[in-house]
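thread from #wetlab-drylab

HS: before we spend reagent money on co-crystallization trials with magnesium ion, can we at least see a predicted complex? here's what I'd submit
DV: go for it
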Amino acid sequence: MRFFKKDVAAASPAHGKGVNHNNNVHIIEDPRKQVYHWQSEGGGKKSSVDDMVLLSKITESAIAENLKKRFMEDKIYTYIGPVLVAVNPFKQLPYFGEREIEMYQGAAQYEVPPHIYSIADTMYRNMLIDSDSQCVIISGESGAGKTVSAKFIMNYITRISGGGQRVQQVKDIILESNPLLEAFGNAKTTRNNNSSRFGKYIEIQFSSGGEPLGGKISNFLLEKSRVHSLNEGERNFHIFYQLCAGATGDMKNNLGISTPDYFSYLSQSGVYKVDGTNDAHEFQETLRAMSVMGMAEETQMDILSVVAAILHMGNLSFVEQNNAATISDAAFLQFPAYLLGIDEQKLGQKLTSRVFDSKWGGKSERVDVTLNLEQAQFARDAWCKGLYSRMFDYIVETVNKAMVTDANLFSIGILDIYGFEIFGRNGFEQFCINYVNEKLQQIFIELTLKSEQEEYKAEGIQWKPIEFFNNKVVCDLIESKRPPGIMCILDDTCATMSAVSEGADDEFRNKMSSQVGSNPHYQPFNHGFTIKHYAGNVSYHVENFCEKNRDVLFTDIIEVMQGSTNTFIRSLFPDVLQKGSKTRPTTAGTKIRTQANELVTTLMKCVPHYIRCIKPNETKKPHDWDDQMVKHQVEYLGLKENIKVKRAGFAYRRPYQKFLHRYAILTKETWPAWYGEPTEGINVIMRSVNMDPAQYQIGRSKIFVKDPESLYMLEESRERKFDHYARVIQKAFKKYFSKQRYLKEKMAASDLLVNRKERRRNSLNRNFYGDYIGVEYKPGLTALIPRRDKVEFALTVDKFDRRFKKTKRDLILTKSHLYLIGRMQVKKGPEKGQIKDVIKRKIDLENISQATLSTYQDDLVLIHVRNDYESLLEIRFKTEFLMVLNNKLKERHNRELPLNFINSFDFRVKKTGWGGGGTRRVRFTDGTTDEPLFASSGSTLSVKIAHGLSSTSRPGIYVITPDIRILANEMKSPKSNNVPGSKGNLQPPARNFVHRSPGGSPLPRPSGPAPKPPGLAAVSPRPRGPAGPQFRPPSAQPVTSPGFPRPPVARMPLNPGGGPPAFRLPGMGSPPIQAMQPPPPPPSDPCPDNQPSIGNGSSRSVNRPPASLPAKPPINRPKPTVPQVRALYGYDASDIDELTFNEGDIMVLVQEDKSGWWTCRFRGQEGFCPANYLEKM
Ligand SMILES: Nc1ncnc2c1ncn2[C@@H]1O[C@H](COP(=O)(O)OP(=O)(O)O)[C@@H](O)[C@H]1O
Ligand SMILES: [Mg+2]
C-alpha cells in the first residue's frame, strides 16, 4: 500500500519547483533537497502562498489578501497546515476530474497543489494506516460551499475505494442520497440557491481493506416551518417545484398537480424558479435516487401523494364567524382528504376544532372546542409541517436501511450542516442553526487552538501561548443547564403554558432578561434578544419561539392520521398516545441540544479534519470579492490564531510506543521491537534517516515532529523498506505458484509472433518478470515516472540513432506511457558534472500506432508513433515487451497493436536542429550467426543474421496439475513426444527444432532419430570428450566447449540493473533475493556436486564413457548416501529458480515432484530441473 507519492513532476507541472522542464528533458533533483512549490513561493516572492503558515505577515488583512489573489486566479483552496480553507468560486472549475483523482491518490499534502481531494485522501489513508475513524467538519456560513465540499469528498472516496458489486451498490446509495435528501431538505434562500435546511452527518463505514460496506446518516432539525412560511425572495423545499414541473400527465391527474402559483404555500413568496436549475430534470433525478434506495414505485407514489396533499392543504382557507373558523370552500377539502386517505368532513372538523381533556373535580372529560381563524390556520400549518418532517425522517430512514451494515470497523464521517445565518428577521430556526454552528466552532477551537497548546504545555515542549477567543461562553449562554441558559429558560416557559398562549413568548423574553440579562453576549430589545455569536451579532424575534419549541402535533390530528386508509400515512404516525400522560414531550430545543452534544461526542471519537468554507460575496457571482465580508469571516473563523498556533507548533505527534512501532522497520536496532529507553529508540530511528534535530522534540510521552516534510521523509523510508519486502515475497510467491500464469502469458506472447517471426532459441520458455531494471530501487528513475503510473515492463535496450549508432536506454513501459530514459551530465550549477537520469522520449501509449519487426530471429523493433518520428530499438525481450504493450493497448484503448513483419523497412528519424529529419532504411538478409551483424552505409542499415527457430515455434509446457496437463496436451506439438526421457505426459520445456531450406523457410522435421533435447537444438551434438562433466576435476567450473557457443540465455538478473544494495531486515525471515540463494555447501557435504559418478548400470552415460577416461574406474566406490541424478542432456536455466547443467553432470536429488520439475542441488545451488533430462542413480 502506498501512502505518499513522490510524483511532483507529473502531479504539479505548474508548481513543481523541484522539476525543470526543458523540452523533453526532465531533470529531477535529489528528492531530499527538493523544495516544494509552496515553500519556495513564500516570503512574498510569489503573489500568494498555498499554505498560509508561510505568510510573512499574519494579520487578517494579509490572510484575506492572500485568499483574494488566489481566488482571482481560480485557486480556491489554501491550507493552514492540515486545515483546508475553501473559497466558493461560484463557477465550475476544471480541476475536479479523473486526472485530479489520480493525482491526489497517495500524494503527500505539500507535494501537490492544495485541494479538497488531498484532505479526502489523507482521511482515507489515515483511516487505513491507523485503523482510526476519521471525520471532516465542514463549516462556514450559508452558501459558503459546505454541501458542495461534502459531495466532492464523497465522490472522491467512493471513486478511490475498491470493491465489487455489493460495494458498488453501497457507493451508489451514498452518492444518490445527496440528490434525494437535497430535493426534500434543501431550498432556495436569499443566501444560497440550494441551501441545506437540515443538518447532516454521514458516516461511511469501511472494511479493513478500505471498501465501503455501508453508511449511516444522522439528520438534524429540519427547518420544517418553511413548509408553510416563506421569507421574501425564497422558495419552499425543492421537491414541491420539482413535482409541479416534472409530474407526468397521470401523476398530475392523480395528485391534482398544477403550476406552483396555484398553491398558496408556494405562491406566497412569488419565487418559482432558481437560476441554473431545471426542476423537471431534477425531479427525474429524485425519482431515480428513490429507486436506487430500493423504494418501490408504490412507495414513491405514496411519498409524492404526501407532498401533493400538503400543497392542497395549504390551499385551505378559513372564514371566522362568532369567533369560530369554518372552511371557506369545502370543495378544497376533497383532494387533501383523498390523498391522505381520510374522511373529508373529518379533515375539515379537525382543522376547525380541537378535543381537550378537561378535568372537573376528579373526573376527566373530553371537550371539543372550536378554533378561531388564527388557531385554524395554525392547526393546518402544524399538520402540514408535521407530515412533512415525518416524511423526511422516513426518507432518511429508508436511505439508512438501504446501506445498513453490521460491520462497523471504522468510518469516515462528513458533517455538512446548515451554515451560520443572519436574515433580516431571525426566528427560532436561525437560533437553533446558529447554536449548532457555535458548537462546531467550539470543537474547532478545542482541538486546534486550545488542546493543542495545552498538550505542548503538558508535554514540556517549549511554548509561548497564543491568545484566542473561546466561544464556550456563547455555547453556555445558550445551552447551559445550571445556571439555566436560553434553551432551559425556553423549556421552562413552554412547560408552564397550557396551549397556544399569546403571552408565552413575552414571558420567555422577560425570564431571559432576569436570568441571562447580564451576560455580555446577550442583549435584549423590544421584540426579542441579540446574541453576540462567534460569527457576528444576530437579533432574534421571540415571536413563536414557544410554539416552535413545544413542537407538538395535536393528539386528535395524530389520531386522524392513524385512521388513514393509506398504510404509508399510518406508518408515519406510530405514536402511542397515552391519555393524560404526565411526561412532557421533548421540545425542539432539547432535541437539537441533545443531538448537537451527541454529535460532538461522535466527532471527538474520530480524528478530525477541517474545511473552513468562505463565501466571497453575496452576489453569487464568480470573481466577485467582497473585502469586508471575507475579512469578517477570516476573523470569526479564527484563521489568524489558527495560523499562529500551526506556525509555532508541530505537524505531527505520536506517543513513543506508536512511533517506535510504526518506524521499527527502519533500523536493525529497532526491529522487531525496541527494548531500551523509548526516547533513545526514537533517536536511533531519527538518526537513521538523518533527521535534522531541530525538526523534532521529544516530550514527556510523545514525540513531536515539526514539518510535514520530515514526517514524509520517515514515511517514505518506511514505505521503501516495505516495498522491498513485498517484492521479495511477491517474487517468491510468483515463482512457486504461478507457473500456470507464466505458461498462459508465454502462449499469449508467442501468439503475437507465431508464423510471423523466427524465434531465438532461448526466448520461448523464458518466464516474464516485467521489470528487469529494478525501477523501484532507482530514485533517479522513480522520480521521473509518476508512481501512480505503474511500471509494467522495464529493460535496458539499445536505441539506434540516425547514424545507426547504438546507445543504451532504459525502456520503461507503464500503464499509460512508454519512456526511453538516458543519462545526461549536468552542465551548469552546483551539480555540474553529475550524471542524471533524463527522459529522452515519452510516448503516450495512445499514440503508438504500430510496430515493425523482421521475420528473422533478431530483436529489432521499430515503434511507430502517430504524427511523430519512429524509434528503432533492439529489445532483448521483445516478445514480452510486445505482449505487455499489446495488453495495455487493449485495456486502456480497446485496440490491439498492429504488427508488421517485413525484412526491409524505412523509418523517419527525429528532427534535431539542422542535422535531423529524413528517413533511414533497415534491411535484413541471411547471415551465419545468431547474433546480428550490423553494417551501415549511408542511410541504410544492413542486418545479417542466421535463421533461428521456426516461426511456428511455441513455448514448452510446464505440466503441473492434471488440469494443466490437458492444456499441455492441447498445446504441445505431436512430435515433441519423441523427446528422449519423456515420461508419459511429463515433458520438459520443449524447444522446437527446425531445419531450414537454403531460402530459410522451415522444413518439416525429419522423422528419423529422436531430436536432441532443449538446449541443443539445431546445433551439432555436444562432443563427449575428456572434458566431459562426469570426470571434471572437483574444482572444475561448468565447461562450454570452445567453438560450440551456448546460445544466449535469457536470465532474470539477480540484482536487476545493479539494483539497490541488498538489505536484510533484522530478524526477519525472508531475505532479499541475493540472500535467498542457499549458501555454498559445507565442506562436509556428503555428496559434493562435482563428485565423479559411477553410475548404476542403467545409465546411458555409463555406456558412453568419454575417450579420456582412466583405463579403469575405481572400484568399490561407496554408494551415495543421498539420492543423485545424472543429467542425460544439458540444460540452460530459463529462470532464476532453475539450474543450469551439462550433460553428464551429477546432482543431488532433493525432491521429486510430479509436476515434472525436480528440485536438485548442484554446485551449492538448489533449483528446479526438468525431470526427463535426468536419470536417477
Ligand atoms: N467548489 C465549488 N465549485 C463551484 N460552485 C460552488 C462550489 N462551492 C459552492 N459552489 C456554488 O455555491 C452554491 C452554494 O454552495 P453550498 O455548498 O450549497 O453552500 P452551503 O452548503 O455552505 O450553504 C452551490 O450551489 C454552487 O452553486
Ligand atoms: Mg449546504
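DV: The chain has a mean pLDDT of 79.
HS: ok that's useful, forwarding to the group
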